[in-house]
Amino acid sequence: MLRTDRIFGVVVILAALAYIASAFQIRTSFLSDPMGSKSFPILLGVIAILCGAIMVLKPDDEVEWPSAGAFLKIAFATVTMIGYAYSLKPLGFLLPTAVAAGILSYLIAGRALFAVLAGLGLSAGLFLVFKYALGLGLVAFPKGLF
Amino acid sequence: MDILSNLALGFSIALSPWTLMLAVIGCFLGTIIGALPGLGPSNGVAILIPLTFSLGLDATSALVLLTSVYYGAMYGGRISSILLNIPGDEPALMTTLDGYPMAKAGRAGDALVISGVASFVGAFLATIGLMLLAPLLSRVAYQFGPAEYFALYMLAFCTLGGLASQNQAKAAFAAALGLAIATIGLDNQTGMPRFTFGNLHLMDGVDFLVPLVGLFAVSEVLIYIENQGKSSSLGVKLEKVTIPFRDIGASFGTMIRASFTGFVAGVLPGAGASLGSFLAYMTEKSFAGKNGGFGTGVPRGIAAPEAGNNAAAGGALVPMLTLGVPGSGTTAVLLALLMTLNITPGPTLFTDRPEVVWGLIAALLIANVVLLIMNVPMVKLFVHILSVPPGLLLPGVMMVSFVGIFSLTGSYFDLLLMTGFGVMGYLFRKIGVPTVPIILGILLGGHMEDALRRAMILSDGDVTYLWSSPIAIGLWAAAIIGFIAPMFLRPILKRPDRVID
Amino acid sequence: MNIKTLGLSAVFVVTAGAVSAAECIAPANPGGGWDFTCRQIGKILYDIGQVDSPVQVTNMAGGGGGLAYSTVVNERNDDPDLIVAASQATATRLAQNAFGGATADQVRFVGAIGADPGVIVVAADSPYNNLDDLMNAVKAGEDISFAGGSAAGGFDHLKVLMLAKEAGIDDVRAIKYIGVDGGADAITQTIGGFTTGMTGDISEIVGFIETGEVKAIAILTDERVDSFPDIPTAQEQGYDVTAVNWRGLYVPKGISDERFQEWADKLQAVADSDEWKAAMEANGLAPFTRVGDDFQNWVDGVIADTEELSREIGVIQ
Q1: Interface touch B453/A40, C-beta < 8 Å
Q2: Which of B60, B94, C100, C169 qualifies as a FRET site for B230, CA 20 to 30 Å off?
Q3: What structural domains and CATH numbers belong to chain C?
């Protein structure tokens, strides 16, 4: 029977192997110490492989995964956050924050008008707090807009 | 009575209406900063250093303000741990274990009051300890060489076995993952990059705040989106806030013991407050035994880590003031502040600049009392955070997290990394991989590997060097017991308390 | 580990329309030498009226200064209001190609206004009283180890290697070296007896010398320094080694010559101020003032020397 833990265990083993492989690529200076730069990472990789093997052999009870709809929402939230990460610097604080906070609010509470208000309110409110109470040098708008 | 006259000197410097006002402002700002995810005590102090200069504060005022912020942030860290299951900073991690279940059970107010009192006891005792022992304790650091440090970290990881989830393999994997993340960046011994793949952002390693906020705050939001309403993690009931005298009385012994443990952990340069709260919680948990109910929301489970981490924060000042060795991130920032004020901490500070040391100690005591007075009535205010609709609060937490992390480097890279950790945290929580060991691995990993490698250099690769001193042997013995004991206890305990992460 | 997380003071300095306030980048976290340089120089520049508004200090830790270096070269190359803290460590890393291919001629070194002499220190109860004792012990095959704040092959390690080379010891591994988290940590290990000695800067050991817990057996300057007249130089002991960790600034390459000269003059004004003298005194720095083109030439020489030495010793290929 295929269980989540088994798949996860295999992923862990593969990731650990990749980690060990890249540990062998570490450049070492010839001044290196007795242990060197590689031993500790390799040791960790071996431990992770053992853990992965145990997960494959003795999996826990099956995980209750969310419905496709919920998964889609989570994926959408993740994409929103990635977009927010990229836009914060070029577009300034206010606009991306309002959009991202609005989308997240809609995904969480499912109320459109509330989400719009939450986005706008959070964007403006947090800007004031960060800028004036904490003194962070936030940029409000894209450079060159005003 | 040298100490009393010294203390009088300290208060004569630190106690005036002006400094008291600064203490109140500092405590208030600190509590808020500490409560916001991603903005820990170190950030709080770091943000405000420039402020002290633009305000033109003198050395004492600056010290009072910033130590108030420091202690305030230590107090504040517990608030989001208890109310939202999101630790505001890394030492507040352990407080989520019992604080959140207790809040879920409708006792949010009690949990906050108990943690407030525990914080006070921890910080107060640590300040007393600092006062009495600092000149003596500075010698302890001389007893810790690479082998002793390595044994200390082994102890931390072995006791982790007792904390971890029902599945030891998953817990061990989580710890290994954390340690592996810690290997990213420049190798401390050779100065060569490891696992950076030519990326400059990774040269200095992964800042632990990024995975911390990702694994906790971001994944919390994702979990909430999945559940949307049912089994809401914000389903914390509100109730009238009273002072739970009985609980406080019952956990008083815990507070005292945890303060002691935390203080000792704080004195050792290294993981500082996180190790303090962790060890305090684990000690109390094993002390309470199977009937203690640790992990299900018991008062002692809140009192222990809070007393522990605040005591550790005080303890961390000992090596900072006496040796100039910062024991934690925050003390490093305080060190920077002192140096800007032309005060160089070191073995002679206590004799050369008594007014600074005792002024600081007095400032700590003042901040502590202010915080206790402020925190108990303010509990109502904090509990009200819960009545904010999730559709507003959670996006707010997200945005604060993003800005907090963005301000670390001003680069989108850390934000992407944080989002990645958020998704990973979500999956891990579904699969049952505990996230606490990951964070501890990241925090301790670098130190642990460095200690091991230094030991190997000094001993020419002789492994027995690792247990060649009485202190090292003692720590190893404790580590082995900590690792083995849960295995034998498990059949007796049947199902160990699961970590709610 | 924690220490590197404090960069919040770095608060994305992109200023929203603020009038060109000067900014000083400390390429490390708060608490170290570069942070000290920025904060002190920034404060004094404002106090003595060389700048109109307080200098904003930005901590940009990463890659041992490499992140700040590449940021300045690639993104801020023509910013006239930017100064960056530098020290011998910057020069050493440039010489050893530790900044990912960046070279020293991509910025302009504007001046140094203080120096931290290198020292070799042993515990007070150590049987070694001078460099000869120590080097003879190494030759006799005794177990000699040093702790220092830099990684293996870094400036602190180089000091020991240079001395060993002078003594005719060619095996760079004859003396063990552990890189720890800064000078204070290194000295703790030495007092605790875990290493034979500590290699570092004099500012790191001021307090410990006063308490008598350690003895400094050599200072790596041409002449003895005024504040510690009892510490013999390596040269007196027949070891021709000097190593000072200068503290100074570099500026972006793309600024005008006039602006470069202005910064040089401002720095000279800081060097001449009483405030800076007090700060040097309190932190064990020795006077060392070189500004403008004079300094640039001197740094070029230092980098060339370090590169040659590193190659000779085998730290770089």
Answers
A1: yes
A2: B94
A3: 2-116+244-313 (3.40.190.150), 117-219 (3.40.190.10)
